[in-house]
Known about the structure:
10 helices; alpha+beta; Endonuclease I-creI; 10 strands; elongated; single chain; 2 domains; four-stranded antiparallel sheet
Amino acid sequence: MGFPGLRxxxxxxxxxxxxxxxxxxxxxxxxVQSGLSLRKVAKQTDISYSTVYRHAVRFSKRQMRIDFSVxxxxxxxxxxxxxxxxxxxxxxxxxxxxxxxxxFDAKRDVEVASFLRGLFEKSGKPAALYREDTWLVxxxxxxxxxDFLYRFVRxxxxxxxxxxxxxxxxxxxxxxxxGFVGGLIDADGHIHQNKRKIGHFGADITTTNxxxxxxxxxxxxRLCLKPKVSKIKPCQTAFSKRTTYVIRLxxxxxxxxxxxxxxxxxxxxxxxxxxx
Length: 276
């Protein structure tokens, strides 16, 4: 069955505004259910976006509401930790798009990206991955997700720039903090491992955000950990002129919590150790 107005080539010079038939409504809904965005369906069929939205928004995968009840405290902490490390907000008032954007190294972080994507899919919120140069990018459009993240991470001004700060850390549960640390390591951290691949030798978390670094140290102290903080000043040829703060958990300290973390980088290290 053909669909009136479906374009196969040149752009039509008119857009339809007349009332849709029942068959046309069902066809629009089928196109959206197949995975096409509402805007793309409107463009292909020359039907106004508002009309497509009215008849098919409930079938759009991007409009599915995220179900936070399926997450454990550690999984929630992991999502917040990764957002604090390598995430950014999506808040486009004009288009009405809200949510979060997550970035991964296209070579090293494929398993991390797959795990985080699986978390969102478990909650009923599909998340598509695409590549930008050397990065894997995942965007999750959800106002509820952004509101949730804002409960734990806020944007604040520091020395003329906008940076992230944690909110009300003293009220976080132990499980949530453990999840947060695991997500932060997967986003902005590194697990130390020698060339013989015999276990790990601690972990690093790096940031150029001084207030955030101080908050992370305080959070680790609440987990009865004693991190060491070092500063690395940029060289003259460095692109960024900001000082890098390295929060180091040596082996003895990291071993206190590593088995309780949700941390894909740590799991990769453990798998390599077992296969040695």
